[in-house]
Design brief:
This protein is α/β, with parallel strands linked by helices. It has one domain: 5'-nuclease (Rossmann fold, 3-Layer(aba) Sandwich), CATH 3.40.50.1010. It contains eight helices and four strands, in the order H-E-H-H-E-H-H-E-H-H-E-H. A four-stranded parallel beta sheet has the order 3-2-1-4. Helix 2 crosses helix 3 and helix 2 packs parallel to helix 4. The radius of gyration is 15 Å and the shape is globular. The protein starts with a helix and ends in a 7-residue tail after the last helix.
Amino acid sequence: MAIGPQAILKGAGRVFGDSSFFFAVLNPGDPFFTRAREISAEILVRGIEVVTTWEMIVECTALLRYRLGYPQSRKFLSGATSVLTILYPSDKERLAAIEFYLKRSRLRRLSLCDALSYVVVSTRLAWAPCLSFDEDFAAMGLTVVP
């Protein structure tokens, strides 16, 4: 039985945001646009903190710039820094991400940024639910808000 987003978000004090989620929120042409907006509204109502990494901000800004143009990347950067909690991974977390990437990426396409997200979510964020439309997050064993 699938667990809905309300059940996952009910007890969550914070969630981790992936670039695929941020991109969907800002792109009306994205297949997940409506879903991303619904989840965003639920997060706002519940007062849930959205946490991400600086690397995710960089990745999303590049994605927006190249696919949607400068105005959307600027909109994201202007808003992101005021509403998101941005983490700066430690050297230890970066090394753990490299190790995870080298183990897991051989069998499945995985970005180093996603490997770093896994390390941060599984350690510093104590397995917080993730806002992601990237199949890799679920494949890595992370809880994804559907």
